[in-house]
Write a structure and sequence with these properties.
Elements: E1 21-23, H1 26-35, E2 40-43, H2 66-71, E3 76-80, H3 86-94, E4 99-102, H4 108-121, H5 129-137, E5 146-149, E6 151-153, E7 158-159, H6 165-172, E8 175-177, H7 191-199, E9 205-209, E10 229-232, H8 234-238, H9 243-258
Parallel strand pairs: 1-2, 1-3, 3-4, 5-8, 5-9, 9-10
Antiparallel strand pairs: 6-7
Length: 260
């Protein structure tokens, strides 16, 4: 028996490499299926990648059906300290199921370090090629070119604030965050305040992802007349895993087109 510890320092008692894994985190679902194909026994309704993943669904990340998870007889459940509730993790552990909880990453290196830990520590494999490539791509931070407001929700407006993975992704690509010094990680400023950031020269660019809220050319930019904006993939901005390799190239191209 091996007993690695997760990001929060909790023991994860495993009897050999796991063979029936339930993932409660979309990004971890993609990372595991891409790296150790065939071990996933279940995933959430929001686990959309890789496309065509055919496993039983156990509800949402915030409110998974714990009974459905237990029915799948997993030898490991993957969770995240921000996306999953402590009470659900506790119920699974009390039922005798090992649970690996990944800390909510504040930076790209944090996320890649956590992924390396779970893949090598829980699954006992070498770091996969995509992880090594992503570590190299995201190692350097580009000089700041512009400051942005980055909404992730509307009704009410919610933006990226301090210590967020998405904010660090943009920071490493030369895009500062106008709310990086806010007390909250996900501030909820009124629309007038958001507009005032641009009027005062405190922000130059509006970055609109397509998830969790699906901003489009027709839903989002019209609230900020005459403000330059760019639509980006929410998956590339907020998911950690194999997508980080493509995210570096795709986000770089989109931002360069918006801010030459």
């Amino acid at each position: 028996m091996t007993t690695p510890t997760d990001d929060l320092g909790a023991d994860v008692p495993l009897v050999g490499p796991p063979r029936r894994v339930v993932s409660l985190v979309p990004a971890l679902t993609e990372a595991v299926e891409h790296t150790v194909p065939g071990v996933l026994a279940g995933a959430t309704d929001y686990c959309t990648h890789p496309p065509g993943l055919d496993v039983p669904r156990v509800g949402g990340s915030k409110y998974p059906k714990v009974g459905a998870v237990l029915d799948l007889r997993p030898d490991l459940v993957l969770a995240n300290s921000e996306e999953n509730r402590p009470e659900d993790v506790r119920r699974l552990r009390e039922a005798g199921v090992p649970v690996w909880v990944m800390a909510a990453p504040a930076t790209v290196p944090d996320a890649l370090g956590s992924l390396r830990a779970v893949l090598t520590g829980a699954f006992g494999i070498e770091a996969p090629g995509w992880l090594v490539e992503a570590e190299e791509l995201w190692r350097v931070t580009r000089p700041p070119r512009v400051r942005a407001v980055v909404p992730v929700w509307r009704k009410p407006w919610v933006v990226l604030g301090r210590d967020t993975f998405g904010g660090d992704v943009l920071h490493r690509l030369g895009v500062g965050n106008a709310y990086v010094d806010h007390a909250d990680r996900y501030p909820r400023p009124p629309l007038d305040e958001l507009r005032s950031r641009f009027a005062a020269g405190e922000a130059d660019l509006l970055v609109l992802p397509d998830e969790p809220y699906e901003f489009t050319d027709d839903d989002g930019p019209q609230f900020f007349p005459d403000v330059p904006y760019v639509l980006v993939s929410g998956r590339y901005l907020t998911w950690y895993g194999p997508s980080l390799v493509d995210a570096y190239r795709e986000l770089s191209a989109a931002l360069t087109a918006a801010v030459p």
